[in-house]
Write a structure and sequence with these properties.
The complex is a heterodimer of chains A (about 550) and B (about 240).
Chain A: H1 3-15, E1 22-27, H2 30-34, H3 37-48, E2 55-60, E3 72-76, E4 85-87, H4 95-101, E5 111-112, H5 117-120, H6 138-143, H7 148-156, H8 159-169, H9 181-190, E6 197-202, H10 211-218, H11 220-234, E7 238-244, H12 248-263, E8 279-285, H13 294-301, E9 325-329, H14 330-334, H15 336-342, H16 344-348, E10 358-365, E11 371-376, H17 381-388, E12 398-403, E13 409-412, H18 422-427, E14 436-441, H19 446-460, H20 466-483, H21 489-505, H22 509-513, H23 516-531
Parallel strand pairs in A: 1-2, 6-7, 6-9, 7-8, 10-14
Antiparallel strand pairs in A: 1-3, 3-4, 4-5, 10-11, 12-13, 12-14
Chain B: E1 12-17, E2 20-25, H1 30-36, E3 60-63, E4 70-71, E5 82-84, H2 88-104, H3 119-126, E6 143-144, E7 150-153, H4 162-171, E8 176-179, E9 186-189, H5 206-210, E10 216-218, H6 232-242
Classes of the chains: A alpha/beta (about 550), B alpha+beta (about 240).
Chain lengths: ~550, ~240
């Protein structure tokens, strides 16, 4: 198949909807569904009936502003979110009003302006289709230009060409570590061996993070396309998507996408009439956070107990069943199709010197606009929180933002003007992580925050290595005493000692980074710990 | 995991461990070279003849030019490597780790059948643990005496998984495994059946011999009487892999 043939197919799929002029797009991602989007969709379908043939009610993926859900956008067929009329907090009773407004004047009482900074300041690459196409529709993805990058890679590029573009793009792993994706791919490509594997890590487990879920629920084909391009580049023919079972909707949409892509010849044998074959299988995680660690994840896929093993050897050398394995996270794969389409240099022109492209963040906690955003690397934290996020609600003041989940740390007001990228966050004692941002206001106690994350690490420690297994337990004990104002100054000193030991000696990333929430809150909010000490004033 | 097969044309490298010039095959790990040359490196999970586990983290060493510490049991030697095995910092970490192990379960040496022959006890002494700074968990654990020859006391287990590995890799029975997470982990026989009811256990007793503490012992032993003999393991392991 050539790009022209694919373009013909896309035109054909578009023509099927030629009679449609307007679309009523209902967000059917998990967060809007949890506030009743499915009922809204039903009501809209019923109210429309067979009338209004030029109007189509369509379930779409995440539009970002989850706190205002259920969201419904009325748009001309080709329009994006900015060019549509967006309604917030829609109830099933509003269906008739919304349908009545199509092509006429908007329903002002439900209106949610799309020119507000939350939408206007974003730049969408990973989420370019999210909220616009129907995630369950293969035709919709192809009509939006989907699978063109795969066909382009297979028909016009050698694997080395693909590697060159990915390396030139400067893309770094979006799972948290920020390892250069091009380097990882090249390493796997250079490894000898007939059998190689590609793994998509969709075991998103950080509290407050839901970027990968949104991508899988809104645009699953994009992830498959990225994986197929990766497999072509490194010489793999088999892939696994390791997705947590707590994401049933994402799993369902992935399964659907895999089935349809297979039927259309974009997965399976001889993809797009080339010699390239590629199979994808879904593996469900059973609720262990540590299985997001790559060696534990691979053990889990192999059917073993999900616990990490020492590295090296790295997965690129000896991964799944001892074969060279490429493992990237959902967002990394979602960036691949645009990079192949637009070129690595285009991607490298976005972002900062060492962190290219955009990053999806999940805003949660004490912030006006809870939801999902995508901004260029290098956007300042202040822009993200105060402008895009709309600041702190209820007239409270900002205290800290937690990034990087249980491996990250808290950033205080003084550092809000720091441009966000992998390296700047590291200098602040936290990390990019997968993109969760939890905003805290003046009412949050930082000792409580540290205790919460330590409890998380303690219950999620697999138990294999002693420092993590026993250290998280002991550190949690001291933090618990601190929150109850029962800890002494000696306890605090011991806590700092334990942080050092656990960080330096643990086997995997979970243990090595478990002390980070404590260390970073001690660094910026030591006063709060001091105030909690037993028998000392201020408690 | 089987022991790595020695590829042909293996090279010999030279390295420095604690300022001592040494040579080693490049497929050897730091701990193997140290044991060969009588350089003491503490470990509770590593055992010559079993696969590498990397769980106790007592064998952490410093390597010049590397920011992170490395586990001697799972790090191969390289040409020109400079290793320090016993710096002040490492000693402090080891001591803390052993203290936390003592506090995790209920280790009471004076009434233990392995008193005087226990690797955890010896480790405590060699790491200079004269008291335990962290609070004891004091969670009671069960004792399984259902096997006619052996006994399992979870109160004395340090989850090194030597029993799991020897049973799987040497005896080939895979009776032992680990269940649970974090500090709730427990070694189990079959699918958490009483040991005496295990259908896979061959009663070979290898697990008892390799257990570093008094967690796995022979029935009928009293305080201090359980002496273990591990010299069979490297011999047996080499015979297995020679085949």
């Amino acid at each position: 198949m050539h790009l022209e043939e694919l373009a013909e197919k896309a035109a054909e799929f578009k023509a099927e909807d030629a009679h449609v002029e307007h679309e009523v797009r209902v967000c059917m991602a998990a967060s809007c569904q949890s506030s009743g989007a499915a009922q809204v969709m039903d009501a809209l379908d019923k109210a429309k009936g067979d009338g209004q043939p030029a109007c189509k009610v369509k379930g779409v993926g995440c539009m970002g502003l989850c706190s205002a859900g259920p969201l419904v956008a009325v748009a001309d067929k080709e329009a994006d979110l900015a060019g549509s009329v967006l309604y917030r907090d829609v109830a099933p009773e509003d269906a008739a009003d919304i349908l009545g407004s199509v092509g006429g004047s908007p329903v002002e009482r439900l209106r949610c302006p799309t020119d507000q900074p939350f939408f206007a300041r974003q730049r969408k690459i990973v989420l370019e289709n999210s909220g616009i196409i129907d995630p369950n529709s293969f035709k919709g993805y192809v009509a939006a230009g989907g699978y063109a990058s795969l066909v382009q890679a297979l028909s016009e590029m050698t694997p080395a060409d693909v590697l060159r573009e990915i390396t030139a793009s400067g893309l770094r792993g979006r799972g948290g570590g920020g390892y250069p994706t091009g380097l990882k791919w090249s390493t796997v490509a250079k490894m000898p061996g007939e059998q190689k594997y590609v793994i998509c890590n969709a075991d998103e487990g950080d509290p407050g993070a839901f970027m990968d879920r949104a991508v899988l629920e809104s645009d699953p084909h994009r992830v498959l396309e990225g994986m197929a391009i990766a497999a072509y580049a490194v010489g793999a023919s088999k892939a696994y998507i390791y997705v947590r079972a707590e994401y049933p909707l994402a799993v369902e949409r992935l399964q659907n996408a895999i089935r349809k892509a297979k039927r259309a010849g974009f997965l399976g044998n001889k993809i797009a009439d080339t010699q390239f074959s590629f199979e994808v299988e879904i593996r469900l995680g059973a609720g262990a956070f540590v299985c997001g660690e790559e060696t534990a994840l691979m053990a889990s896929i192999e059917g073993l107990r999900g616990q990490p093993r020492p590295r090296p050897p790295y997965p690129a050398e000896s991964g799944l069943w001892g074969c060279p394995t490429l493992i990237n996270n959902v967002e990394s794969f979602a960036n691949i199709a645009p990079i192949v389409r637009e070129g690595g240099d285009w991607f490298a022109s976005i972002g900062t010197e060492k962190s290219k492209g955009t990053k999806v963040f999940a805003l949660a906690g004490k912030i006006a606009n809870t939801g999902l955003i995508e901004v260029p690397m290098g956007t300042t934290l202040r822009d993200i929180i105060e402008v895009i996020g709309g600041g702190i609600p209820d007239g409270k003041t900002f205290k800290a933002v937690q990034t990087g989940g249980p491996s990250g740390g808290c950033i205080p007001e003084a550092h809000l003007d720091m441009p966000v990228d992998y390296d700047s966050l590291k200098t602040l004692g936290t990390m990019m992580g997968s993109g969760g941002m939890i905003v805290m206001d003046e009412t949050s106690s930082m000792v409580d925050v540290a205790r919460y994350f330590m409890e998380f690490c303690m219950t999620e420690s697999c138990g294999k290595c002693v420092p993590c297994r026993t250290g998280t337990y002991q550190m949690h004990g001291i933090l618990d005493k601190l929150t109850k104002s029962q800890a002494s100054r000696d306890d605090l000193a011991l806590l700092e000692d334990l942080c050092e030991v656990v960080q330096a000696t643990s086997l995997c990333g979970l243990g090595q980074t478990a002390p980070n929430p404590v260390l970073s809150t001690l660094r910026y909010f030591r006063q709060e710990y001091e105030e909690k000490l037993q028998g000392e004033t201020g408690a | 995991m089987p022991l790595p097969v020695t590829p042909p044309n293996i090279r010999v490298v030279t390295l420095k461990i604690d300022d001592q010039d040494l040579s080693a095959r490049e497929d050897e790990t730091i701990i193997e070279v140290c044991r060969e040359n009588a350089i003491p490196i503490p470990s509770l999970c590593y055992l010559d003849g079993l696969s590498v586990w990397g769980g106790c983290r007592l064998c952490m060493v410093e390597i010049a030019g590397q920011g992170r510490l490395a586990a001697a049991c799972s790090t191969r030697v390289t040409e020109g490597m400079e290793v320090r095995t016993s710096t002040e910092r490492l000693q402090r970490y080891r001591r803390t780790i052993v203290e936390m192990l003592f506090a995790e379960r209920n280790h009471v040496c004076s009434v233990c059948v392995s008193n005087g022959h226990c690797e955890l006890q010896t480790m405590g002494q060699s790491c200079g643990v004269d008291h335990v700074r962290v609070p004891y968990r004091q969670t009671p654990y069960p004792v399984d005496s259902s096997h006619e020859m052996f006994r399992l006391d979870h109160n004395r287990c340090i989850l090194c998984t030597r029993c799991v590995r020897v049973c799987d890799e040497i005896e080939g029975a895979h009776t032992w495994d680990v269940m649970g997470r974090g500090s709730d982990c427990r070694v189990i026989t079959d699918l958490a059946l009483p040991w005496g009811e295990s259908e896979t256990c061959t009663s070979c007793g290898k697990c008892v011999q390799v257990c570093p503490t008094g967690a796995l012992v022979k029935q009928g032993t009293s305080a201090g009487e359980m002496v273990k003999d591990q010299h069979f393991l490297p011999i047996l392991a080499r015979r297995r892999h020679a085949r």
